[in-house]
Amino acid sequence: MSSTSPRKTRKRRSLKTPFQLHLLQGTDLGIMALLFLVPAFLGGRLGSGQVALFAAAGGMAICWLLYQCYEESPRYRLTRFEPLLILAAILILVQCSELPANVIASISPKIREILPLWQEGESATYSLGAWSTISLSPAATRQALPFLFAYGILFVVTAQRLAHVDDIEKVFRWMALAAMGMAAIGLAQYFVGNGKYLWTYQHPMISTDGSAKGTFTNGNHFAHFLMLGSGPLFWWFMKESVTDTDVKSRRSSRKEFQYQTQRPLLSAVLLGGLGLIVFAVLMGLTRGGAAALGISLTVCLCICWKRGYVSARMLGGLMAGGGLVVVGLLLYGMDQVSTNLDDWDVDRWIIWEANLNIAKDYPILGTGLGSHFQSYRSYLNTPLFESRFTHAESGYLQVLSETGLVGISLLGLAMLFPIYWCVRGLRYAENRQEVILFAALLGSFIANYLHAIVDFIWWVPACLTMLLLQGACACRLYQITSRRHRSDLKSEPAIYLPRVIVYGVTCLVVCLTTWMVRDAVGIWQGEKEFHAFQRLAMVNSEADDAMGERTPRTLEESYEDAGQVAASLTAEQRREYAQRQLVNQVSLLIHAANMNPHDAELQYRVAEGYLIYFEILQSHSDNPMSTSQIRDAVFASEFETKQELYEWLERAFGSNAQYLYAAHAHTKTAVRLCPLQGDAYLQLAKLAFLDGAGADSEEVCLQQAEQVRPYDADVIFERGRFEWSAGKYDDALTHWKSAFHQEIRTQKRVIRLLAGAVDPPKFVEFFEPDWPALRRIVKQYRLTGNEAALEAVLPLYAERAIKEAGREQNPDAVRDWMQAVSAFQELDQPLNAERCLVAALKRYGNDIQLHETYGKLLYSMNRMEEAEQELRWCLTFKPDDPDLRRRYELAQSKRLQGESNIRLTSGQPESPPQ
User: Fold this and answer.
1) Cβ–Cβ contacts within 10 Å for residue 500, how many?
2) Which of 80, 111, 553, 662 lies at a CB distance of 3.0 to 4.6 Å from 610, suitable for a disulfide?
3) pLDDT tens per residue across span 708-742
4) What DSSP string describes 266-309?
5) With helix as H, strand as E and coil as C, how does 324-345 read?
6) What single DSSP character describes residue 198?
7) pTM for this one?
8) What is the DSSP letter of 755?
9) pLDDT value of residue 365
């Protein structure tokens, strides 16, 4: 049995064997890996970062347990934090465990309301069964368990490893070095980078350009990591700048330590490192990160000043470091930094409101840990907003929406522990070093809690890892200092365990670590395949003329764009090229899904790929029936069993039928993993007939999609298509108009579907497009060669372009003027085009593009002298442009020829009168 006191019959060893020392070193290596290795993989967010996190946490736990096996009296030092870790694990297990329907209805009645397709009953014409978990993304919630285990053991094992203040100081030095190294990497990548992480890894969607972000996905997480390391670095600087001499302050009775040092070079390096961190945070262009760093250092300085540990000379040194930071900002981007710090986004208010609404509907246990990426879309109604929120931009709101009041209560209790340890520890601290250690820790915790209001920084493994390590340091420092002052604490609170229990726990940790690492390796491999798919899709993507970015969202879009990329090929060659690209993309998705079968969105993408591939094969087969035609034929045939249906499909479509069934299987897997995917239900509406469902299954699936994605543009678009097929044309147009203004890619679908079929003036009048949408409409008419439609819509297009060009603070005003000029030229109205160019040149007189276009226009109007002047001006800036020089020489030649003709005419004698 375990005991809280050591066995009196045994004497504890004071000397360690070499193997025990190696085990302690292994534990230390695990801590170092958490600080230096995990952040290198995009802050631990990549699959490789998860492998590093789980391996490091499990490895340090195994080393420590083996070390305890060799102790005379194996013991576990209590931190009082263990009950919260256990309760958190229970919460996750409850969320992802299968529960009776009545229990789920009592805890989260909203689930029954939004998942009608998951209700069993005689009245249900088509059902997917009964939903049986509190979490609406149970696969993602289960994946949170390995993270909780890793975070728990790294906190607990670190608390066991830190036996003395010297051990805490050693970890502090590591944290300071990690922050300094990350700041150096971030600035180096920003100033001399190539857009790749560590100059080697190219993420398909993220670049290191734009701001300093180190090895993190954005500047906010980068800045938070540096903030957490700034406190330990401040402590290290203070430690190196003190002697044993103290003097009385003339201002008060406080003791004041003189700023002296035995190692001035190290102090200078540390002070420079602190300035480097401040500079890197500011170059990260993040308001929250800059504020968090300021709060952390302010708390440290205030506590040290109050205790008399900051002298005027030391303040002078810190101000000198701050001066260097200001000089750096003046040289590199002060305007950009100040502009960014003053610019508060509206996006946060949007996503905060959505999360508050989620919390109202799921108040007790939330929607499930890890479900935010899917759940918020049921509440966010933001027309033409293309961003996707991976997190809630607030740690507290995300915890509240995902875990309810139970989870936020556990979080509140967990946050009190470090504050209590630091505040109480400051009362017990006897010397300068302990006070500064507590000050650095308290500054980090307060800044972390405040920063979490505006960002979910706990979502980043590297940031949470350093925070938990600091929590373990605070716990141990409090225990060490409090034991000296409390007579009732003669020994540390600990449990002495029989060796057999330690052996059993070691075996358990080995098994759990093996399972976690193996699962993370699968996620890592699947992630590599998915990133390869994203890169291939980006190659085939079409740059949107209004956005200026390549943002493919679906395989269908990528397939369509692939046929446009190879425009120089014949129609047959383009089709073959697009088909090859699609096969490559689907193959990558299949491999990714096999490696990571618990990703709901990945399963849907695979299903989408199979269905598109089936449609392509069918369009070139002997029996070219589409999926919708096959579905109608099945409904008309009224097969009695699924086997009869399967045999008919095989006879009619041969091997192509396997892709239809594969799409169906992956679609159902996707909605089982997460029933909030509206797109998956839209696809299921096309394939439900394979389950033997009746003709009404399409509307049932569509209604389910509307429940979970009421504002999704694709869902609204498909509702319009359904209403059109039912003969409700006005309702269909109303839905399509709503979808048109909801999302850009769906807007393109509406344009492709209706722009050629509806009279252009009526189309524009009904859909009321804004300027970017009108540009897409004109682009579609140009692609289809619809001259009549262009002639009808270009006057409005030109008028709108002129209005947009005159808008204040329009960064693309020159482009809009050029659009108006192009429209008037297509309408064969050169005088109107000239008026636009003259107006544009009055405001942007040094723009080469405007001058060159004006010169070419004058040339086409046979005004050679003016054209020559404009083109000559352009040649001073573009002397090596052969086309421009050729046109200038032609204008000059024609002008001279015209002058010669005039002279010859004026010199001829008059004809004699007849």
Assistant:
1) 9
2) 662
3) 999 999 999 999 999 998 999 999 999 999 999 98
4) HHHHHHHHHHHHHHHHHHTT-HHHHHHHHHHHHHHHHHHHHTT-
5) HHHHHHHHCCHHHHHHHHHCCC
6) T
7) 0.87
8) T
9) 96
